[in-house]
Amino acid sequence: MSHPQTPLHARPTHARPIVVLGAGIIGLTTAIRLLESKPDHPVHILADHLPSNPWTRDTQAPRRGLIISVSRRTMMSVRGGGIGGHAELDPHALHAFLTRTGRPIAFEVMYDEWQRDGPRSGLMRIRQTEYMTDETHLQIYEEHPDFRVLERSVLPSWANHGVSFTSLTMTPGMYLSSLLVRLHHLGLAGIHRLHLTSLSDLSSSGVVENIGVPIAVVNCTGLGARDLGGVEDQTVYPVRGQVIGSLGGGERGERTYVIPRTNGDVILGGTRGVGDEDGEVREETTRGILQRALEICPGLVQAPQAASQEASQEASQEASQEASQEASQEASQDPTGKNTAKVDITIPSGTSSTTSVESLEKLVIAQVVGFRPQRTGGIRLEREDLPLRPQSWDMEAEEVGAVVVVHNYGHGGAGWQSCWGTAEEAVGLVCDALGWA
Q1: For residues 266 and 249, is the Cβ–Cβ distance under 8 A?
Q2: Which residues contact 283 (CB under 8 A, 6 or more apart)?
Q3: Tens of pLDDT along 65-93?
Q4: If pLDDT is split at 50, 70 and 90, which confidence band does 268 have?
Q5: I need a surface site. Which of 76, 134, 239, 290 has the fewest CB within 10 A?
Q6: How far apart are the first and last CA of the chain?
Q7: Tens digits of per-residue pLDDT, 146-186?
Q8: Where in the chain is the domain with CATH 3.40.50.720?
Q9: Are strands 256-260 and 73-79 parallel, antiparallel or unpaired?
Q10: 332-380: per-residue pLDDT in tens?
Q11: How far apart, in whole angstroms, are the C-alpha atoms of residue 109 and residue 100?
Q12: Residue 99, pLDDT score
C-alpha cells in the first residue's frame, strides 16, 4: 500500500515520539541509530516479542546459527550450486546493502564492539573458511581482513573453490542483551510488548495515552509485514532453517556450516526450505546435517570438549582479571590480545562415519527450526506517509498531518550482517522526511 508523500506541517515535534515496530536485531539497531542521531527526541519500541521473552517459532533468530559475513576460532562452511544463500537478492544488491561508501558497515561496528568488550559483547573473532562446489564466492567476502583464495591443493576433493578471511560469530541472545543495555543508556523512552494488527492501531487511545501521537514509524516487523494491516506485503515469505546446537564447542546442496560461539556452543546447519512453514524438527534432517557437518569438519566429535574447556577458561580468566596471564597464553595466537579460537579438526584413524554421527548425536543439546524473513525483490527500505485521523487525538487533523512510515524489513538470512547498514539508511530516510539535518 502506498500513499502520496506530502510535506509535514512546520510544528514543534519534541512531544511526538518516533515508534519502532519490532525488537529483533533490525528494530534494536534502528532504535539505537535514531537515538544517536537525535538524542533529545523520544523513541519507543513496540513489539510482539521482546528479546527476554521465551522463544517461539516467530522469534527464531536468537536461537539460529549465524554467519556474520559482513562483518579467529575456526568456522567452516560449504555452499552448493552457485553462490546462493540469499534467495531473491542479487549478490551485487546484497553487497550494496552490506556496504556503504565502500565500507562493510556492520562488520566495522561489530569488530569495534568485539575489540572494546571482548566476550561480553557476544561476539568472537574467527578465521572463516568457505568451500564452494562451483568456482564463485560472495563479493562481500573480499571486504574482510585477511581475505585470500585457497589453493586447490588444500581443498577437499569435493570442493572446486575456497576462500578464507577474518570474520565474527555471534551468540545472539548475548548480543541483543547488550543492545538493550545500550538503548537504556541512550535514553530509550520505552520498550513495550504489544501486538498491533494494523498500523492504524497506533491511533488507538491506549497507544496514544501511553506514548503520544507518533511523528514517525519505522517498520522492522520482518515476517510480520505479511499480516500487518496497512502493509500486508505478500512478497514476504519464510525460508525455513533447521539447526543443531551441540555443547562446547538438509538437504544435499544446501549450505553446510559449523559455527563456534563465544559461550562454548557449536551450531551445525543448515537447510533452506523456501515457503516451508513447518515449525517441527525433522529427525531425518538432523541426521543429514550431522553427516554433512562431519564431511567438512570430520574431527567435530572432539571439538566440543576442547571448545567448552577453552570457553570456561576464558570466562574464568576474565572474571578473575588475570589479564597478564591471559595475554601471555594467547599472545602467540592473537596480537590484539583478544581470543582467537582453535578447533581441532583431526579425526582418529579407524573411526567410521556412522560411528561419528552417532557420537555427535550424543552431544546435541537443542534442535531448532527458524524462519528467515525473505522478500521477493530483496530488502524493503523506503518511505511512505500514512494518513491517520483518530477521533481520540487531542489534535486537529491539519495539525497532525501524515505520519512518516519508513519500512526496514525483508532481510532474509542477511539481517544480522546488514543490520547496522540498513539502520543508518532507515534513519536517514526519517531525518530527511522530518527536515532534520
Answers
A1: yes
A2: none
A3: 332 222 223 555 554 433 333 333 444 44
A4: confident
A5: 134
A6: 28
A7: 999 999 999 988 889 999 999 998 888 999 999 999 999 99
A8: 1-48+194-235+376-437
A9: antiparallel
A10: 333 333 333 333 333 333 344 556 788 888 888 888 888 989 999 889 9
A11: 13
A12: 53
Residue 401 banded pLDDT, cuts 50, 70, 90? low
- Distance set, CA 179 to CA 7, 60, 186, 398 (Å): 33, 18, 10, 37
Mean pLDDT of the chain: 75
**Which is nearest to 29 in space by CA: 421, 406, 405?**
421
Convert the pLDDT of each residue in 414-425 to its tens digit.
888 889 999 999
Q: Report cis status (omega within 30 of 0) of the bond before 270.
A: yes
pTM of the model: 0.77
Residue 391 Cα distances to 198, 283, 394, 397, 408, angstroms: 17, 54, 8, 9, 29
Please tell me the distance from the alpha carbon of residue 281 to that of residue 266, in angstroms, as a whole number: 18
Cell numbers for 278: 513447518
Residue 383's DSSP bridge partners are: 406
Closest by CA position to 259, among listed 151, 346, 155, 343:
343
Backbone angles phi, psi at 32, to 5 degrees: -60, -45
Nearest to 80 by CA among 275, 260, 288: 288
Which tens digits make up the pLDDT trace of 16-40?
899 999 999 999 999 999 999 999 8
- Which parts of 237-348 fold into alpha helices (H)? 283-296, 303-319, 323-330
Are the CB atoms for 311 and 248 separated by under 8 Å?
yes
CA–CA gap between residue 277 and residue 282 (Å, rounded): 13
To the question of domain 1-48+194-235+376-437 being in CATH 3.30.428.10, the answer is: no
Tell me which H or E stretch contains 95.
Answer: helix 91-98
Determine the residue type at 115. Answer: Q
User: Grid coordinates representing 319?
Assistant: 572474571
What CA–CA distance (Å, rounded) separates 105 from 49?
27
- Ramachandran region of residue 381, left (φ > 0), alpha (ψ -120 to 50) or beta? beta
